[in-house]
Each structure stands twice: as C-alpha cells, then as structure tokens.
Write a structure and sequence with these properties.
6 helices; mainly alpha
Length: 178
C-alpha cells in the first residue's frame, strides 16, 4: 500500500513541477500582448487564446500536485480544535463530496475530450489551433486529482484507526521502514 501512495505522490509531484514551467510562456504571451497593445496599439489574434490554453492546462494538471502538497485553501477553524483522529474522521466523511466531484469530472470530461479528439476539434478563431490536446488534459488532470484524493483518504483512514497524526510516507506507515 505504501508503494501505491508513493507512486501517486511521485506522479503528482513530477506533473506539478513539469507543468509549473507553463507559467513562463504564459507570462511571456501575456506580457507581449499587453506591450504590443499599449505601445504599438497592435492586437495579436492568438495571444489571448494561447494564454487561456496554457493557464487552463496548468490549472487542471496541478490539482493533484496542490492536494499532494496540502496547499489547497482550507477553512481550518474546526480542524484546529480537533484531535488528529477526529479531523481524519471528518475528512473521511466529507470525502464523499470529493469523490463525487472527481468521478463526475472524470466521466464527463472523458466523454467531452474523446469527442473532441474524434473530430480533431480546432478553435473557431482566426488562428484556429487544435483544442483536443487541451481538452485531453482535463480527464488526465481529474484522474491525477482523484488518485491523490485516494491516497489522502487512505492516510486519513490510517490516522482515524490509529489516532497518530503522522502521515504515511515513502518510508512506510508513520515513517517506519517498509
């Protein structure tokens, strides 16, 4: 089990680190678009659309990474006052909402992306770039998010059973050698 947790963690960590480099071309495109418009009063047809593609891909593919790093914005007013076991139990109970969301996102986006791929969909803009690669990232990102959610569920389940607040890591359950 710790091997599965470690593999999912590594997959999301590497995906998040790789996709974070999408911010560099995104920054360049947005800066170029602003500069050309402000200085030369020139609008580039492809700038806004490319920025949307880059940011959308970045956003959807880093969901699992953000969950892995525990970086989502949380309202921890209740969790701060609870024991690790009680907080884990609440996480387990509310995970039904998470798994419902991820399941629907994966199911619907998978159908949507496959249809886009089937017809080799392109944007209706003047630039007309292919859209299907971006749409294929949505179910992939949803899958990464779902897998990381499963690992968090397993970790919360272990904490709920044991009452210990340590996380399951690559070294084993609660840091013990595996």
């Amino acid at each position: 089990m710790t091997r599965f947790l470690h593999i999912v963690d590594i997959l999301n960590d590497w995906t998040g680190r790789l996709v974070s480099f999408f911010l560099i071309p995104l920054f360049i495109v947005v800066l170029l678009e602003i500069a050309l418009r402000a200085i030369f009063n020139i609008a580039i047809d492809w700038g806004h659309e490319l920025a949307q593609f880059l940011f959308g891909t970045y956003f959807i593919l880093t969901g699992g990474y953000v969950l892995y790093r525990q970086s989502h914005i949380k309202v921890e007013i209740l969790h701060q006052r609870l024991s690790p076991r009680a907080a884990a139990i609440i996480n387990l109970l509310t995970s039904v909402l998470f798994f419902t969301f991820c399941g629907i996102l994966l199911w619907r986006s998978g159908k949507w992306a496959l249809e886009s791929l089937r017809m080799f969909e392109h944007s209706p803009s003047i630039w007309a770039p292919p859209i299907y690669p971006v749409k294929l990232c949505v179910p992939f990102g949803a899958l990464l998010f779902l897998l990381q959610g499963i690992t968090e569920f397993i970790r919360d389940f272990i904490v709920a059973l044991s009452g210990k607040s340590e996380r399951v890591t690559k070294e084993g359950i609660f840091g013990e050698p595996s």
